[in-house]
């Protein structure tokens, strides 16, 4: 679905050959030199003319040649031929840089056209009998095929060596007697046509004994053997043209163009002309093999027709008419597939440049040109595959260019003969009634008009176009912008097609210096348009022939494909709320003054806004990737960040989100035709084969759904969600589910389909899909971050699913009339709650069942479904076991039996159970049911209410479920039974080793023996001795118990508590003081010793204190040395790791682009290497196996407390070790006590040294940890910045006054002046 548009036409005066005898001399042959862009023409006067074409272009890569900058025409001397001899064929030989000429007398001439030579030379290289009809060089130029006037075919090399000579037809006796005589005149004939690879060539030859029948013959290049022959056909022409790709061979037969295969079989055909007197000449394929052109000659005019093949149909895309006496001929450019060059008998040359444009308009209407017909297809109504269509418009002659006004559905067509036709179509909603119809469109009543180019509607009744007219000197042409005003004299009947009664008047005509590349209407001004001239300059045209340049919209190169879009107002970011898009031939997509993409193949503009502003740009790249770009990103300049310059990337797990930014088009070379705006959200592409495909990008679909939800069009949004398989939760989550609760009633009212609502209800889940599933496609922000949490608290902590279902359920009851379908939908909301409200649903079923049993009137029963249907619906939505348990939970055995039967359970399993329950008392039945359903609280209530006879069952229930003890104490009022419950609770706590709580529980029920046992098990000696006092034990028993407790506490490492028992209950002073010394309670031990005045004990305390102080001094000095070593090692490790990271940074990008297996293998190789590994790691399959990895992990966990030099986690292990060396609270308390004791016993020097060493150790440890943490957060380890002395000086003043150093004695604190703490030797 694309049209071939004439982009520009060149026919300047310097392309007109100055023939020596214009009255009698005409052009008869032509040849082309593609290397130097030279044309050679041979005239009937046997003269050779050369014209050099230098087509100006903007750049070497652009094909927008808009003017001929230089031409040189040379009139050569007449060739020295015999009298009566004439040139019949001419070809340019690139290897010889000469023309190879054949004459009617049979001479073969080599004419040197080298411009560097002083004079051209001519050489006779051969002569053939009967004259030369045609010369055809092979594609590689190595061979020449010559057809003579007597029907002989000669194939020779370019060195004039004859390879073989063959007659074109088998001569019989009759044909031999009728051969041409020696004086017959030889005229030019159809040449041979070579296949693109040069292995075969085809010729049309006449049949013996027949004047009308001809046949196609295909010959082999190497041997000259006849490869295949077609069936003879009457009225077959001499023209044959082999497609360059080799797929088809085109020939002419009785106004038809027929296509043959290499084996000579006819493949297909189509009618090329409808006139009786028309003849077809000069078939030519373009170099891409997609366009076929031919000259069709009639009595009144000649025309060049161009066909295009797609979907097994030949479309006539262009027709260029010429006067009959012009005798026009043409050829395709050998390199540029869309450039066609024509010339007349008088020597007037023209160059045409075509471009492919989409036939799909802004309103998604396809207008496909096919000769004098326009095939109309509304893609927004149905995606009708070509070549089919909805209806067609018939014009008086071939259509050259079209313009469609989407606002009024008016189509204007510029025809080949220069006339203009206008047709007004009805509204799109009535087009389905026009299917299959043909509407004839009449010509406009106008003044004499030239053919329009770049035809554009600038208002509903105003057309703008470009015409090319001769200038005053009649030797050159000039471009004009012409404005036409249309008036319809007939009234338009709604729902019908109006194709007559239009008058066109020329309003203004503006001359321009340069050629026009494209014209688009201005969406913000009436009767205004943007005109792009050659080079990319953009001018704004206004009514009244005003044209002024827009520098803010200029493109850097000519862009034949140009569109303009109205966008929302972005303030000062853009001057006007419009964006002008342009695509040049090199694939650069321009937006205003910027280049958005460098590899674009096609693009379209999409809008889902009610005011028709453009919201998205759809572009396809040359790598067949489809991008959906938000206009906001273009205006804000965020396309490079969001889309990465539209360069394809390798998608892996690490960059999976990048894959959501584009769509991979599955067929190479597909192009965007257009879009369907609004809720359809469709992008229409066409493959090279011609098939139409509709793509629904997820981003556009989600934008359309959200746009409909914002406008509260719930039914439309729900239909889009169902059609495109979008998660239904987007309806709730687009603005937050709390906002949806207020709109639930409107949602149910608009949707008005209980099946759709049920489908919506079944899809709800406790997840915000806007933040998870669709986060990459559409931006989602909440105005208040804490709103959702506050709203959920305000709603009593209800979840999203339950709250929404509750709102929908209420809306169903209020908005929908009572019916069986409504009841089933309500049951669905209950069953899909989280957790399911099955009991409430079964209550509703129970009501229906009671209604059936009561035999109410039919009117009420018809409003609800049957109980069986309701149960089956509920069982379909939920697990059958869960529904059965819910029915049991209602204590309705009959309902439970019905559920079991409908869920197809085995009666042998559930009937005995239900029968057993039926014979029990009500409370016991409920107790049994609660036990089965594990509703233990209700079971406890029922068993307690059942009476004293079931107390044993109650105790058993409580013991099996300890969480019921506190509830049982509230339900049971009998004191004796309460004590039994408490004792059972104490036993349970004792069994779970909660001895303190067990002892307290035993005391509550006055069980002192078990309380004493529990306290002793918990090592609570105070509780043991207190309970022993309550039990009124003998003094000896208490003394023995105290000795036992003292030994137990000493054994478990609690000497200080054992000392208290020794002093208070055992009266053992010596043992008590020894225990205090073991506990390092120095001040308390000294106090007790002085109180009792025992010298031996005092001596033990003094000796122990001095030894402890000395050992602590040595320990802190060693710790200070360790800190220095650890810190120095850490800084070295850190610096090496940073150097290695910098070295590997260059390789990081290539590693990320590897596939997952390669990345996994690479990471496994690096994971075992530390920052300071000096050797080369050699991996093997065994070393990288999972078992080896797991073993290494186990060993690492076992040695977690050690620092392994060279290990990957050494750096963190060093920091953790330094942190672990800090003084604990117990150590500080011990230091404070020891310092006081040393002073009391007169050892001030030891106390002073101990405090100084401890202070230095603590300061160094804190400073080293702070230094390591600072170095960890930096990327560079500077040896002048991370110095421990600086950290010690900085932290000493603030730390010494803090709680960390509260253990110090102020009398031993060193003065701050000149007495800094010592630096660890290892670090220094």
From TrEMBL:
<dbReference type="GO" id="GO:0000049">
    <property type="term" value="F:tRNA binding"/>
</dbReference>
<dbReference type="Pfam" id="PF23925">
    <property type="entry name" value="A-sol_ELP1"/>
</dbReference>
<feature type="compositionally biased region" description="Basic residues">
    <location>
        <begin position="1192"/>
        <end position="1203"/>
    </location>
</feature>
<feature type="domain" description="ELP1 first N-terminal beta-propeller">
    <location>
        <begin position="193"/>
        <end position="334"/>
    </location>
</feature>
<feature type="domain" description="ELP1 TPR">
    <location>
        <begin position="926"/>
        <end position="1087"/>
    </location>
</feature>
<dbReference type="GO" id="GO:0005829">
    <property type="term" value="C:cytosol"/>
</dbReference>
<dbReference type="InterPro" id="IPR056165">
    <property type="entry name" value="Beta-prop_ELP1_2nd"/>
</dbReference>
<feature type="compositionally biased region" description="Low complexity">
    <location>
        <begin position="1170"/>
        <end position="1191"/>
    </location>
</feature>
<dbReference type="Pfam" id="PF23936">
    <property type="entry name" value="HB_ELP1"/>
</dbReference>
<dbReference type="InterPro" id="IPR056166">
    <property type="entry name" value="TPR_ELP1"/>
</dbReference>
<dbReference type="Pfam" id="PF23797">
    <property type="entry name" value="Beta-prop_ELP1_2nd"/>
</dbReference>
<dbReference type="InterPro" id="IPR006849">
    <property type="entry name" value="Elp1"/>
</dbReference>
<dbReference type="GO" id="GO:0033588">
    <property type="term" value="C:elongator holoenzyme complex"/>
</dbReference>
<feature type="domain" description="ELP1 alpha-solenoid">
    <location>
        <begin position="698"/>
        <end position="917"/>
    </location>
</feature>
<dbReference type="InterPro" id="IPR015943">
    <property type="entry name" value="WD40/YVTN_repeat-like_dom_sf"/>
</dbReference>
<dbReference type="GO" id="GO:0005634">
    <property type="term" value="C:nucleus"/>
</dbReference>
<feature type="domain" description="ELP1 first N-terminal beta-propeller">
    <location>
        <begin position="1"/>
        <end position="174"/>
    </location>
</feature>
<dbReference type="Pfam" id="PF04762">
    <property type="entry name" value="Beta-prop_ELP1_1st"/>
</dbReference>
<keyword id="KW-0819">tRNA processing</keyword>
<dbReference type="InterPro" id="IPR056164">
    <property type="entry name" value="Beta-prop_ELP1_1st"/>
</dbReference>
<protein>
    <recommendedName>
        <fullName>Elongator complex protein 1</fullName>
    </recommendedName>
</protein>
<keyword id="KW-0963">Cytoplasm</keyword>
<comment type="function">
    <text>Component of the elongator complex which is required for multiple tRNA modifications, including mcm5U (5-methoxycarbonylmethyl uridine), mcm5s2U (5-methoxycarbonylmethyl-2-thiouridine), and ncm5U (5-carbamoylmethyl uridine). The elongator complex catalyzes formation of carboxymethyluridine in the wobble base at position 34 in tRNAs.</text>
</comment>
<feature type="region of interest" description="Disordered">
    <location>
        <begin position="1170"/>
        <end position="1208"/>
    </location>
</feature>
<comment type="pathway">
    <text>tRNA modification; 5-methoxycarbonylmethyl-2-thiouridine-tRNA biosynthesis.</text>
</comment>
<feature type="domain" description="ELP1 three-helical bundle">
    <location>
        <begin position="1101"/>
        <end position="1254"/>
    </location>
</feature>
<comment type="similarity">
    <text>Belongs to the ELP1/IKA1 family.</text>
</comment>
<dbReference type="Pfam" id="PF23878">
    <property type="entry name" value="TPR_ELP1"/>
</dbReference>
<keyword id="KW-0539">Nucleus</keyword>
<feature type="region of interest" description="Disordered">
    <location>
        <begin position="173"/>
        <end position="192"/>
    </location>
</feature>
<dbReference type="GO" id="GO:0002926">
    <property type="term" value="P:tRNA wobble base 5-methoxycarbonylmethyl-2-thiouridinylation"/>
</dbReference>
<feature type="domain" description="ELP1 N-terminal second beta-propeller">
    <location>
        <begin position="368"/>
        <end position="672"/>
    </location>
</feature>
<dbReference type="InterPro" id="IPR056169">
    <property type="entry name" value="HB_ELP1"/>
</dbReference>
<dbReference type="InterPro" id="IPR056167">
    <property type="entry name" value="A-sol_ELP1"/>
</dbReference>
